[in-house]
Design brief:
about 150 residues; alpha/beta; 6 helices; five-stranded mixed beta sheet
């Protein structure tokens, strides 16, 4: 199943993010079965609050394609995107996001509020297709839990 394969790759990016001293989130962008963008979450390390894994993957894909139009692509993320990352996906015309770990399993402070991306998504002129792929939820959550234990 393509979702499992590519989401596993995004979760591997989350582990890479931790190894690089970042937050435990990873993302990839896929178009026509090919990875065209990858991202890790190094916002705190780089002193850049916009450097989330999803935004980094979008930037990487746009650079690869020399275009800001990611129509026909799928964003795979190790965790449910925040509002900024959801909006970045919308502005780059990503029509679909598949994520492993839902917000409800994570600390609210990681999201900067109590909003639901499903509600925010419905305000867009062209709402994105959001898919929680729960089969890999625990794999993503383990990386987050291990990271939380290591930073205490």
């Amino acid at each position: 199943m393509k979702e499992e394969f590519f989401l596993t790759k995004a979760i591997e990016k989350a582990k890479e993010s931790v190894d690089l001293g970042g937050f435990p989130a990873g993302a990839i962008i896929v178009r026509a079965g090919k990875i065209i963008g990858e991202g890790v979450s190094l916002g705190n390390k780089l002193h850049d609050p916009t450097n989330h894994a999803e935004v980094a993957a979008i930037r990487s894909a746009c650079k690869e394609l020399t275009s800001s139009d990611l129509s026909g692509s799928i964003l795979f993320s190790s965790m449910e995107p925040c509002s900024m990352c959801l909006a970045a996906a919308m502005w780059s015309s990503v029509p679909e996001i598949v994520f492993a770990c839902p917000k409800e399993k994570l600390k609210d402070e990681y999201y900067g509020g109590h909003y639901q991306i499903l509600d925010l998504n419905e305000t867009f002129a062209q709402p994105l297709k959001l898919i929680h792929f729960g089969e890999l939820e625990n794999d993503s959550l383990k990386i987050v839990n291990d990271w939380e234990a290591s930073v205490k």
